[in-house]
Design goal:
single chain, about 220 residues, alpha/beta, 5-stranded parallel sheet, 8 helices, about 20% strand
């Protein structure tokens, strides 16, 4: 699930030169991460993965007309790796009434959603439907939307896409963690039998927390 967020608004300019220009509204975005220093929330983060993420994030904001330090304020928060404190942190963030809250990871998003039903939440995480964050990927509903990286229904769709890309493929093996197969992941693949063919019985190597599942594609 991916949606584009327009955090920037076009500012109204008086049609006549004699009319004073209205002051630009300053927008506020709160970014909440589960752990680590708030210094990593930025384009010069020492973490390469985070740096690429935030470079893209801030570039898009600038393209939409929102520039930090000009008409945009970024409020940075960290849960400091203490899940028991996420609820209090979420209430603190909501109490400052930002225009949008960017919540990273499922636990943070759940805490923020529990704290507000009105402030828009842009979320990055996994299994949004299974967790109850959204009703479905196409129409999330409520005040939360964003990017779901590994939702259960996407797994089966990948096999369908694989079949379209390689029509001659008849069998594919998948190696995954046992807990993943026994959860939403396995249920999604098993439920996709009519579309992709037969799902073989899972095989687990003795003493290893992984399972190998073979699917015979139609």
């Amino acid at each position: 699930m991916r949606r584009d967020f327009s955090f920037g608004l076009l500012l109204a300019v008086a049609p006549r030169a004699a009319r004073a220009q209205e002051p630009a509204k300053r927008h506020r975005i709160a970014i909440v991460i589960p752990a680590g220093a708030v210094a990593v929330i930025g384009e010069i983060s020492s973490d390469p993965l985070r740096r690429r993420f935030y470079q893209s994030f801030f570039e898009e904001l600038r393209r939409l007309g929102d520039v930090e330090g000009q008409n945009l304020t970024i409020e940075r928060y960290s849960g400091e790796g203490r899940p028991e404190g996420y609820a209090d942190l979420a209430r603190e963030v909501v109490g400052r009434y930002p225009d949008v809250i960017v919540a990273q990871t499922n636990p943070v998003a759940l805490a923020v959603r529990a704290a507000t039903g009105t402030i828009p939440i842009a979320w990055v995480g996994v299994n949004a439907v299974e967790l109850g964050l959204v009703t479905n990927l196409a129409r999330p509903g409520g005040n939360i939307t964003g990017v779901s990286l590994y939702d259960a229904e996407i797994y089966a769709k990948r096999l369908q896409i694989l079949k379209e890309m390689a029509p001659s493929a008849s069998k594919v093996a998948n190696l995954t963690m046992r807990r993943a197969w026994e959860g939403a992941y396995g249920k999604a693949l098993s439920g996709s039998k009519p579309a992709i063919g037969n799902i073989g019985d899972p095989y687990a190597a003795p003493g290893v927390d992984t399972v190998r599942v073979s699917a015979r594609l139609r």
